[in-house]
Amino acid sequence: MIPFDFQYYRPTTIQEVINTFNDLDSQGLSPIYYGGGTEIITMARKESLSTKAVIDIKALPETKVLEEVKGELVFGAGLSLSEIIESNLFTLFSKVLRPIADHTVRNKLTLGGNICGRLPYREAILPLLVADGKVVLVGPEGRREVDINTVFDKRLLLKKGEFLLQVKVNKSVISSPYFNRRKEKQTLVDYPITNIVALKEGGKIKMAFSGVAPLPFRSIEMESFINNKELSSEERITKAIELMPLPFKKDHLASDDYRRALLEKSMKEMLANLEGVIV
Amino acid sequence: MNDYNVIGVSTTRLDAKEKTTGKQIYINDNNPPGLLHAALKTSTHSHALIKSIDISLAKKSSGVQAILTGEDFPVTLGLYMGDKPPLAYKKVRYYGEPVAAIIANSEQEAKAALSLIKVEYEELPIISSVRNALKEDAPLIHPDMSKYKHIDAIHPEIGKNIANRTKIRKGNIKEGFEKADVIIEASFSFPPSDHVAMETRATITKINPRGDIVIKSATQAPFIVKSLLGYNFDIPIGKINVESSPIGGGFGGKAGLQLEALVYLLSRAVGGRPVKLVNTREQDLISSPGHIGMEADVRLGCTKEGNLVAAELTYLFDCGAYADYAVNISRAAAISSTGPYRIPNVSCDSLCVYTNHPFATAFRGFGHIELAFAIERSIDLLSEKLGMDSMEFRLKNAIVEGDTAPTLNVMDANTGDLPECIRRVGTMINWEEGSKIEVSPNKVRAKGMGLLWKSPAMPTNTDAGVILTFNEDASINLQTGIVEIGQGTFTALAQIVAEKFKIPVDKVHVVEDTNTKTAPHDWATAASRSLMMAGRAAIEASDDAIAQLKRTASIPLHCSPEDLEVGYGRIFLKDEPKIGIDMEKVVMGYVYPNGNAIEGQVIGRGRYISRRLSGINPETGEGQPELEWTLGAQAIEVEVDLSDGSYNVLQAVCCMDVGTLINPKLAHEQIVGGLAMGLSFARNEGFLFNNREQVINDDLRSYKILRYGEHPKYQVEFLNTPQGDGPFGARGLGEQGVIGMPGALSNALSRAIGKPLNALPLTPESIWKTIKEEDK
Amino acid sequence: MIAYKDYASIELLVNGEKRKVFARPADTLLRVLREKLGLTGAKPGCENGDCGACTVLIDGKPIKSCLTLAVEVGNKEITTIEGLSNTEIQEAFIEEGGFQCGYCTSGFLLNSYALLETHPDADDKTIKEWLESNLCRCTGYEGIEKSIKAAQEKIKNR
Prior knowledge:
The structure holds 3 protein chains of 3 kinds.
Chain A: E1 7-10, H1 14-26, E2 32-34, H2 38-45, E3 53-56, E4 66-69, E5 72-76, H3 81-87, H4 91-97, H5 103-106, H6 111-116, H7 125-130, E6 134-139, E7 142-147, H8 148-151, E8 163-170, E9 178-184, E10 192-201, E11 204-210, E12 217-218, H9 220-226, H10 233-242, H11 256-275
Parallel strand pairs in A: 1-3, 2-3
Antiparallel strand pairs in A: 4-5, 5-8, 6-7, 6-8, 9-10, 10-11, 11-12
Helix pairs in contact in A: 3-4, 9-10, 10-11
Chain B: H1 16-20, E1 36-42, E2 48-54, H2 56-59, E3 64-69, E4 91-92, E5 98-104, H3 107-114, E6 118-123, H4 130-133, E7 162-170, H5 173-179, E8 182-190, E9 202-207, E10 213-217, H6 222-233, E11 240-244, H7 260-269, E12 275-278, H8 281-286, E13 293-302, E14 308-320, H9 326-335, E15 345-354, H10 368-386, H11 390-397, H12 418-428, E16 436-440, E17 443-454, E18 463-470, E19 476-480, H13 489-501, E20 508-510, E21 514-515, H14 530-557, E22 564-567, E23 570-573, E24 580-582, E25 590-591, E26 597-598, E27 603-609, E28 630-641, E29 647-657, H15 664-683, E30 713-719, H16 741-753, H17 764-775
Parallel strand pairs in B: 1-12, 10-11, 14-15, 19-20, 29-30
Antiparallel strand pairs in B: 1-5, 2-4, 2-6, 3-5, 7-15, 8-13, 9-10, 9-12, 11-21, 13-14, 16-17, 17-28, 18-19, 18-27, 22-23, 23-24, 25-26, 28-29
Chain C: E1 2-4, E2 8-14, E3 17-23, H1 29-36, E4 55-58, E5 61-64, E6 77-79, H2 88-96, H3 105-118, H4 124-131, H5 142-156
Parallel strand pairs in C: 2-6
Antiparallel strand pairs in C: 2-3, 4-5, 4-6
């Protein structure tokens, strides 16, 4: 039971969305965009989020796009994780989305919600970061299509009133070797304590992480060490971890030491998997 | 069992259709006319003085009818010790304790007003563990303990944080250890946790104009609710009527007094209008009571031949802020303190200790799952130190008929065959293959065993009753005070009555909503005694009705009632079965062709009261508190990844001596459910506290229970040594499945990693840490 | 554009019937089904999306009705446990011990029903992927697992 009231809007065109946002914002209603709603509803019940209006973007046809267009795979932000997984357009994407929440929740939880929500995992972004994908953002100032790595720094850097419409990746990534290892405290239906997603392109490994630190990230510095084959495999891993842009997280799910141990183990498995290196 | 009609047959549960069509009505599904809704404001501190509560803003909020705080009810109540106010009064003693209640026209309005209540606290020193609570200079959580009323069977220690101490002094502990060639000492622990019944607690209460109090509650114990309300609020007990529908899981958490006292007070505050209070999941986990925590110190000794000679046991139970059932759980743990082992010299101090944790109530196993963890781990440690296979050690020391329990009670012919249970479990888990097998450099498969025993911990005069009435078609209505909590007792009771009358089970109609005004008295649906006790009452009620049927029938049949037999819907001559009369013609009195009627309807009455029970000596524990024992053995097989501590539970097996099986399928399902719950507890569960003793895993996203796919392959076997005084020879089995699992799991994992794991829950990280310590 | 500012009349298609209700935009589907339509088969076990006792089908797919606003599903087909009768999975739950207290049962049944309608031959991995969305505290999942397998057999012989 959500104890407070909010208004609900479901526009069907981008212009309607923008107008609705501007209108509600000018009334001081602090509108928020609503995808699957799974996070908004749970946080609203606990009153850890408050809003006076939600704008459901799932009726925008653009948010339901799931296809290949001119060599790019396009995923609408209003797609449920299940829809993306089942399409299997991008195997690594499906693989990373599959352990998020549970099967029933994934029927509701949307791509946009996972990336733009407040929960600090945002695992759906990881394959997009390593695939150097793009995001299509729409807001009062118009529409922009930008490289994801320029607008994602632990969170998607959205301007006021802006929302995620679509993500895109170059189709070529689907044939790139990849690696994904997600570890949980114990139960598989849980947030990750470490999640590493890696893609190998042009002989170079690209890596993105969730769960290991307070927020998800991709780090070019870490990649420069992991790809430095002059070092021993052990060193590549150790140095890469030393350069983590955020400290290891410690919380009720795991200590920082355990996260580090699992991450080291995952990275060894990654090298074994992508380079045939046995560490 | 060969001669029986429906005993030993897996008949379909009576509630099958309702529960598979969504039509079973639970308390929270009811919304009577005029209903008001309550919501609780809970404490954000684990120990603090309440400086002020400002309700002025909330009172003005839409739909709010009344707001009550501890100041409105400055009384303390309890099950065994009256230590708990209905709403925190002047101070809070745990995080999540209710401090105020709002009653409003709708649930939404009640909840919307909660955030408008402003509570000002002044923090007090926090007691975060039983060991801290027992320190000399520890602050007192209940400084007024001397003023609390309590039952005689518990022994609170004034001026300390000890709500009860139970002592066992069997044999001579000093001499016992002198005889020991091998001794181990170890400590064990687990945090408080929760039942997580899928239905959260819910209560609806109204007071009728004439003053009758009607309580509809998800309770396992309607008669306890009734008597405690009467006792604590000085209400003539006949004016209280408690109704319980089938409930969505109990596991002990809905026994005793739960929300009922508070909701009664709330209804009273709004002129008797019906008020409903349903726990949120968060409140069900932490505000309402959960599963007790424990720290235990064990010293155990055996001879070089492997015979146990002495056990010195200290059980420190973490009952949290209030005593509730915990004072009896710690007592039950003392009574059964050794587990099912023959130990001539025992010294046990079992303490119920207050801390600033959520408080504890009954939990499936009631003291036994807790003590069994400490004992079963100790047995493995001792047999390992001695150099004897742990299964062989268990076989050697398993308690059998003629041995004495810690209370000096002699185990009688109903004890069952524990050694055979152990052997069966050994076969099922393939113990011979080896209890530790390397699968690959980092993967190990290992096995662990745990024994169980349990006797119900209950008042010496615990009772049950059954009333049978008849319909014109000679079908039978069966009424008891038992509550359907998922265990299926109603089905088994219907089978017992059907057996007595040799009629199909569907001719027995069970009243499935329990109502204290119409049902015969029943202690509570707890302690695995419902089938045993109500089953006995059902037999007596059947015999009573049969005698009446015979008497009525003997008149038109012109014979002595002694010549008659009842069965198959008829009353007939024993030696000439063709001569008889249909039951239909007798159940409402016999009517002659000319219209004259005789005798009247048949009403069968059956009662059962526990026999020959007594309290225990406060200094030695000697006495007769145990009604009947159920014993068994369990084992687990795990596969562990030594590189990160993660593991899968491959198998969970159990052999239990349950006497006669009334319904084998239901019995199997109860045991499997118990195995899963014990496994879930040992593997996953426990509250996590921050440094202010706030629970940080207060929802089911962070408090994990066993899920589909994590469950092992189960194997269950039964032995059938009859319970002499049980209905058709049956004994209790509802709780027992949980008991040996924590020991079995920790034994298997300890064996896998070659290091003792003596604390629960057994998370991969805790195992990884233990493995790493070894490397240092 | 659909816009609900306050309590509004919304039309839902539940178990094949059009039903009109008056609800707040912030009301979850679970609450509306239970409190406005009397369909109490969907249970609140956590209202946090964790337990699955509130599972219903939306256009044939299981979703958690506690994580859904009623206003979101106005144009979709909603199936609750009251909309299932005499299905193979219901029979199997009775025969194989798929329930005890019954509180999680509606959710498990609807999820299992959708699973078997979508993947009648679901293997253990798929069954696990779907059913780990629901929690049961009574059965240890053995009876539920047996029920799924038995229902698969029954469906083969439809």
